Amino acid sequence: MIRTARMACFLSIILVVFAPNLTKAEPVFKDTHSAVRAVAQKLSDNLSENRLHVVIDTLNLKGSQISSEFADRFLDLLQAELKQPKYQHDFIAVERQGTTRSLVRTRGGSGFLRIDDTTALEKESSPSASHDVLLSGTYKQSQDQQSVIVSIKLEKSDGSMISDASVLLQRSSIQEPLEPQNKDLIQKTIRKVDASSKPVSDFKLNLWVDKGNGGIYRSGQEVKLLFRSEVDCYLKVLYIDVNGNRILMFPTERDSKTKLSAAVVHELHKNNKYTISSPFGSEVIIAFASTEPFPETTEINIGGGYRGFANDQPTSDIVNGLRGMIVGAQGEYAKKSEARVFITTLP
Asked: What DSSP line would sit under 12-38, residue for residue?
């Protein structure tokens, strides 16, 4: 949480369905290091460009924005492998998302912005970013549950893929958990919330964290939270932690309650410190934006300058209230929109 084949043909078809780059001749690697080395080699062999600055984004459980201990270790090993001298002609720099100079996805993942330690942001079309690529991927268990299929891709800011690689890794060789213990709980919460009322999208907005959607944060690390809207708006950011607590990350008593300017990247962590602590697992952050001020009738003071909601108030009621109709001073209905991002927290 944040503190405050006939058989041969049949088998071949299965492999094609679940991992397009794999064939029946592909080995099942018996350890993660070997699988990582194979991925690095395939990424290099399949490259359509070279001399790339690679920013490692996320490795998520397929079909979700949820990551794991396994994914974090795999990416750490892959980063180290891609830095080996044999790959230096292809990859001139390799770094994990969330370091002092990194790329963050925007526009639903079809582009990205760069953030550096001076917090300057450059537009997606910037020529200086022409050799920057994002490395991301998914993993899932095979149908027989005996192996894990890991698929990795490199893509440019326009969403075009310039390399990819897939491997099979023996499931029994993986010691780390493949998913957080509360994965089903957080997904159930989101499904229930969206079943009670539908997300609103009257205008375009972006919400992201410095480590990307599904990014992994460990105990003691800080989350950098950023927001951008195409219209001037008021903003409330709801954080739902592993235990189901509902906290307003923004605004706090340290933030202005005035409208946020359009077309500007707002660093919501500027006045607030979002630090990871136990318990750990899959968590979600949801931004609600409105052209008129939100009511605060059900919020309570939870200390540290933060506000939240009572334990006996259902999450669906809280979200329905934030999505609800607001009438402005001139009798006009407010335009509203929302965005969400998942994070995975680990010890």
From this structure: HHHHHHH-TT--TT--EESSHHHHHHH
User: Residue 97 to residues 100, 133, 231: CA-CA distances in angstroms?
Assistant: 9, 11, 28
At 218-259, the pLDDT tens digits run 999 999 999 999 999 999 999 999 888 999 999 999 999 899
Q: Are 276 and 221 a contacting pair, CB within 8 Å?
A: yes
The reply to whether 141 and 195 lie within a common domain is no
Element (H, E) at 52: strand 52-61
Decide which of 189 and 233 is more confident: 233
Burial class (CB in 10 A: 0-12, 13-18, 19+), 19: buried
Q: How buried is residue 203: exposed, middle or buried, by Cβ count under 10 Å (0-12/13-18/19+)?
A: middle
The whole-number pLDDT of residue 104 equals 56
What is residue 126's predicted lDDT score, i.e. its pLDDT?
Answer: 36
For residue 60 the two structure tokens come to 């998520």
> How confident is the model over 106-131, as pLDDT tens digits?
544 455 655 543 343 433 333 334 46
Task: Name the 3-class secondary structure at 184.
Answer: helix
2 occurs within a structural domain: no
Asked whether residue 280 falls in the same domain as residue 142, the answer is no
The per-residue pLDDT for range 306-326, each reduced to its tens digit, is 999 999 999 999 999 999 989
Q: Report DSSP state, residue 200.
A: P
Whole-angstrom Cα Rg for the chain: 21
Could you tell me the strand order of the sheet in which 306-308 lies?
A: 215-218, 336-346, 282-290, 234-240, 246-250, 306-308, 300-303
Beta bridge partners of 2: 276
Domain count, the chain: 2
Cα 119 from Cα 283, distance rounded (Å): 25
CA 2 from chain centre, in angstroms, equals 15
